[in-house]
Design a protein that fits this description.
The structure holds 2 protein chains of 2 kinds. Chain A is built from 18 helices and 20 strands. By secondary structure, chain A is α/β, with parallel strands linked by helices. Chain A folds into 3 domains: about 190 residues, Rossmann fold (3-Layer(aba) Sandwich), CATH 3.40.50; about 170 residues, Rossmann fold (3-Layer(aba) Sandwich), CATH 3.40.50.300; about 80 residues, no CATH class. In chain A, helix 7 packs parallel to helix 8 and helix 15 packs parallel to helix 16. By secondary structure, chain B is mostly helical. Chain B has 14 helices and 4 strands. The chains are: A alpha/beta, B mainly alpha. At the A-B interface, helix 11 and helix 12 of A face helix 8 and helix 9 of B.
Chain lengths: ~550, ~350
Amino acid sequence: MLDLTRKIRNVVSRGRGGKGRRVQKGLLEGVKRGETVLEMKGITKRFPGVIANDHIDFDIKAGEIHAILGENGAGKTTLMNVLYGLYQPDEGEIRVRGKKVTLESPKDAIDLGIGMVHQHFMIVPSLTVTENIVLGLKSSREPLLDMDRAERKIVELSKKYGLKVDPKAKIWQLSVGEQQRVEIIKALYRHAQILVLDEPTSVLTPPEVKEFMRVLKRMARDGLAIIPFITHKLPEVMAVSNRVTVLRAGKVVARLKTKRTKERDLVKKMVGREVLFRVKKHRVEKGKMALEVKRLRALSDRGLPALKDVSFSVREGEILGIAGVAGNGQRELEEVITGLRKATKGKVIIRGKDMTNRAPKEFIDWGVGHIPEDRLERGLVMDFSVAENLVLETHSKQPFIHKWFLPFEKRRWFLNYDEIKKHAKKLIKDYDVITPSVDIPTRHLSGGNLQRLILARELSRKPKVLIAAQPTRGLDVSSARFIREKLFEQVKEGTAILLVSEDLDETMMMSDRIAVMYEGEVVGLMPAARAKREEIGLMMAGVKRMSKKAS
Amino acid sequence: MRIFEKRILWEIAILVLLVFGALAVGGLIIYIGTGVGPLTAYGWLVKGAFGNANAVSETLVHACPILFIALGFVIAGRCNLWNIGGDGQLLMGGLGAFLAGYYLPLPAPLLLVAVLASAFAFGAVWGVIAGFLKAKLKVNEIVTTIMLNFIAFFIIDWLVLNPMRGPMEIVGAQSMSDLLPQSAWLPRLIGGYRLHVGIFVAIAVAILAYILLWRTPFGYRVRAIGYSPKAAEYSGMNITRNLMLVMVLAGGISALAGAAEVSGIHHALRSDIAARGGYASVSYMATGIIAGMLGRLHPLGVIPSSIFFGALISGGDVMRYLGGIPYTAVFVLQGLVFVFIVAGEILIRMKVRR
């Protein structure tokens, strides 16, 4: 639906502002290093009720890496869409090599030489690398494809920049890092001179990030202009960028040479106030065994073994972090220990009770809270109101039921919306959820607020065991911090937390112990105090494993 | 809250506009086909639908089964199930109503309750077959409900031609069963007119359905499952059980249309009670589903939309008598309304700007 409205908007604006002026192809050919290739001046974009971009200036030279930094909602996505021709700015202009251009669609951007690597890759899993790269392009042998030639060119490009990838491999066979390389090659294949990267490192393992940084440097040295857009994951980008532009609330708040800044200052500028980068961890007395998983096995959606003899345990007041690259069984694990997926073998014991393969409701009633990885599909009913979403599990319990039929205590006939709303109003206050009202559909809320909503609901049930999967993924710094603090508070009250996170920094900072998952197995389990980043990185990549008895 | 009221007004305005658009195109088709000017034709239509007491009575008589079927469609639709089994459920409901009315030795008021309850039960069984197949075996409910329509039709057809064949024959039409005893007839409201209490039962059911969906924990779960089955599963709802319950309700409510036809109009069981005017493909079900869509899948919204289609049917009769406009024009109009509201979805969903 959104896409459709956007398309319509595009068509409308095309009719209005286009005047038939086509973008000049090859405007960026023969650029020399150090020449300013792109300027954005006074870019302003308004949406009903908000100014997403407020007079933003930006420029980049060939051979430069100029990062754009900002929290969720700072206006990064809008700016990116303006740059890629998806939105037309209300004010301001875009100049390429000094010439004013109008980008009416992504096609214009591509024709000009602006390439985009999206956070969620736009590639077809069942096709090969080469097929994906030539997708939508005219072949030299129309109407036939010329795969050999395409392949040769791909190999050439990948050698030139060190983007190792097998052109004949199918996408689904590739790791996330390799898929990203395919996206980059795809842009280069279309003669991109300006490369826009959306959250490029958020999906990569530490070794992959290092490799990626090398590639970026090489491309910049070769004269490409590279614009990474970043919410979090500052350190890596700090390491390679020449300049950083920081956005906050739609405005440019700082433009700095990277060499002369510190990470802390950047975060301060981004958030607008001093935010402790590290949440203080308190020592908590560990209590009784809360969650125990014994030689657990389960299948993935495709029916392949996803968990292979996974065993671990979490005590009351303890956080066990599960580190690992996405797709190594974490999702299946999360689902098995909340009743959403059947275990084929093994045991799940929660607070002394065998809960293996029970229904989700029994887990909920037995004090298991769950912050699901898939927030939008699993965690919330997006078409329900905020108030309705806050009672998903508890809607048929007191006080949310009218007591009109008191003689029939068990008859839960009518919802008490006054109580449901009261409950919601209290929670959105306690958890700083920003929403105009508790009656609006949840889908109108932003990412950080959605996650606060889920957290509020799950913690309001006072769980004894909490499964938190990717609790801060994609969130801005202050929301992420808020959520981590709340989790710590919970641990202090004796809750056992299983933290599944792809963000290794987060896992290391928050956990008491860390388990590393690789291909459905726990390949390492160690106290966080003794954990080394590089070592965990190697385990995540499957290079190294610990002997099983080490915990 | 104000924004929601605006939203609703906007939706209604757009829907009215779309209906007028459909009528405009329909008028053009009628003009091309018969040479009768659209305004003249629609004049007859309005007269036939609301022009006198009998016209209003006929409008409501037709609106009644449409409303029941629309409600059966809406309740399932709120759980994201497409109940295209209105015909079959109506027929089974007719059978249930007839059996109860014919065989149960009860006094009149109790007997009528039994007639409705029996119709509901028969339809519920018919609906839950599809519900069971969907919930347990993930068989697409659209396919099963449609297929069950045929099964129901041939069961009833066989019954009225063989074991339940009555003494009377309708000239040029199918057989029908014996007549129901008078105590099993739904009371008619005004002497001489066909209007019976069914329409009020239907409106009451619509209000109950609204309360059920928006004021009870069960309705809450139904809507949660409809919007997002994964989130519903996550929050501990029993999806299998709720899907089946929804189909019980949907089938049962659609089946009340059968009770209305058998016990309110024909006073006997016939196999053509679902089809109108001998057009098997254009049945109360087809109209009911379009009414459900026009009513924005809302139990209260389908009340006016069902009355609209009831008016179209009774007015269509008059168009035929007075202007020789074939009755099929009504089906054309119905189809156009459907096309317009489906295509107009984008307008309905457009953002309300201040």
